[in-house]
């Protein structure tokens, strides 16, 4: 429990007093009878998508709530987790006054969103073994620090943070602790979702873009207290998740067996790829991965990146990231794709 947490003091004043836009579809309760919709200036002729989507995505949230074991009031959906992260900045960080704490090397969008929102980004490097530098983090925060972004498993390093470290942040920071769990389905660690009730300052983001195989539909998920969710609901665009995305997401989460099978296959391939990488002599280090990618350190990342590109294989060069000199990030593909990667890595020796 974090006793210093005060949500009212955290939210931006303009957001606190905001009266949200009330969309046509928000203003009535369905009576269940055959309804005639003449409220939203839609074209009445059927195209299958001539109606606005449900602004609260109730059907999809109900299914996610069941799968994840949380209440619907603890869920907000966004146009990718990138939208969810942006909403968090806009709800809680006053431009030019507040700051957010991010922990490089990590996901690049936190810094971009801080810049877009004109919010100071306080960067505290991870330790040499990519763990949280707790004392530096606690020293860097002040009364204007509103959010700390923890990405676990972390992109691009692939590790999950030690539980004790995360708990220490949760208990000692009275702003929001956002744990980005984009890769949680590949992790040995369990999700922080079970701790949602114990920590009112905990916000968790997940996505359908990685393990669920739905990057194209843009569906991000935010889990937090009902109070935090209702603040985010006030500022989100009314129809932020389109009808086609809601439908495709629903189909997918109704088929969790397929998702689990694909995750299992990817984990098997990750282990096989890891073994194969041990045989490539210019690879100096292979970092343990709790995600669907592997970070490696090579002799010359920029050279190896170009050589692979010439062979038609696109990976991510992370050499310019702090603590990541000469590293490359390899996404685990299908068995055939990984075979091509392994062959190419050996060929450019
Ligand atoms: C890929 C990724 C996401 C996904 O973002 P979406 O907008 O949901 O596609 C979020 N966080 C991290 C750390 C990622 O690597």
UniProtKB/TrEMBL annotation:
Any GO molecular function: histidinol-phosphate transaminase activity
Record key words, sorted: Amino-acid biosynthesis, Aminotransferase, Histidine biosynthesis, Pyridoxal phosphate, Transferase
Required co-factors: pyridoxal 5'-phosphate
Catalysed reaction equations from the record: L-histidinol phosphate + 2-oxoglutarate = 3-(imidazol-4-yl)-2-oxopropyl phosphate + L-glutamate
Name of a matching Pfam family: Aminotran_1_2
Protein name: Histidinol-phosphate aminotransferase
PROSITE patterns: AA_TRANSFER_CLASS_2
Domain Aminotransferase class I/classII large residues, every copy: 47-345
EC number in record: 2.6.1.9
Subunit field text: Homodimer.
BP GO annotations: L-histidine biosynthetic process
Protein family according to the UniProt entry: Belongs to the class-II pyridoxal-phosphate-dependent aminotransferase family. Histidinol-phosphate aminotransferase subfamily.
Modified residues (N6-(pyridoxal phosphate)lysine): 210
Pathway(s) of this molecule: Amino-acid biosynthesis; L-histidine biosynthesis; L-histidine from 5-phospho-alpha-D-ribose 1-diphosphate: step 7/9; Lipid metabolism
Source organism, top-level taxon: Bacteria
InterPro entries referenced in this protein's UniProt entry, alphabetically: Aminotrans_II_pyridoxalP_BS, Aminotransferase_I/II_large, HisP_aminotrans, PyrdxlP-dep_Trfase, PyrdxlP-dep_Trfase_major, PyrdxlP-dep_Trfase_small
CDD domains (alphabetical): AAT_like (cd00609)
């Amino acid at each position: 429990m974090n006793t210093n947490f005060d949500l009212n003091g955290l939210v931006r004043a303009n957001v606190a007093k905001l009266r949200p836009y009330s969309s046509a579809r928000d203003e009535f309760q369905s009576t269940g009878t055959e309804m005639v919709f003449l409220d939203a200036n839609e074209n009445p002729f059927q195209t299958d998508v001539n109606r606005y989507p449900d602004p609260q995505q109730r059907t999809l949230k109900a299914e996610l709530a069941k799968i994840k074991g949380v209440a619907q009031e603890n869920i907000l959906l966004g146009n990718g987790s990138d939208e969810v992260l942006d909403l968090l900045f806009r709800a809680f960080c006053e431009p030019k006054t507040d700051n957010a704490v991010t922990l490089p090397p990590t996901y690049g969008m936190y810094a971009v969103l801080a810049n877009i929102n004109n919010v100071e980004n306080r960067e505290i490097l991870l330790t040499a073994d990519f763990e949280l530098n707790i004392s530096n983090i606690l020293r860097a925060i002040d009364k204007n620090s509103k959010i700390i972004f923890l990405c676990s498993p972390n992109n691009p390093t692939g590790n999950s943070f030690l539980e004790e470290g995360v708990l220490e942040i949760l208990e000692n920071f009275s702003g929001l602790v956002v744990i980005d769990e984009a890769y949680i389905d590949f992790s040995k660690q369990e999700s922080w979702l079970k701790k949602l009730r114990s920590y009112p300052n905990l916000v968790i983001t997940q996505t359908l873009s990685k393990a669920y195989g739905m990057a194209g539909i843009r569906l991000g998920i935010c889990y937090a207290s009902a109070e935090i969710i209702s603040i985010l609901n006030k500022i989100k665009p009314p129809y932020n998740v389109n009808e086609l995305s809601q439908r495709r997401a629903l189909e997918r989460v109704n088929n969790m067996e397929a998702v689990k099978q694909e995750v299992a296959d990817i984990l098997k391939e990750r282990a096989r790829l890891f073994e194969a990488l041990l045989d490539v002599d210019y690879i100096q280090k292979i970092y343990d991965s709790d995600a669907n990618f592997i970070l490696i350190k090579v002799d010359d990342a920029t050279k190896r990146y170009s050589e692979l590109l010439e062979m038609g294989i696109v990976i991510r060069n992370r050499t310019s990231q702090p603590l990541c000199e000469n590293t490359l990030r390899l996404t685990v593909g299908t068995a055939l794709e990984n075979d091509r990667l392994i062959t190419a890595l050996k060929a450019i020796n």
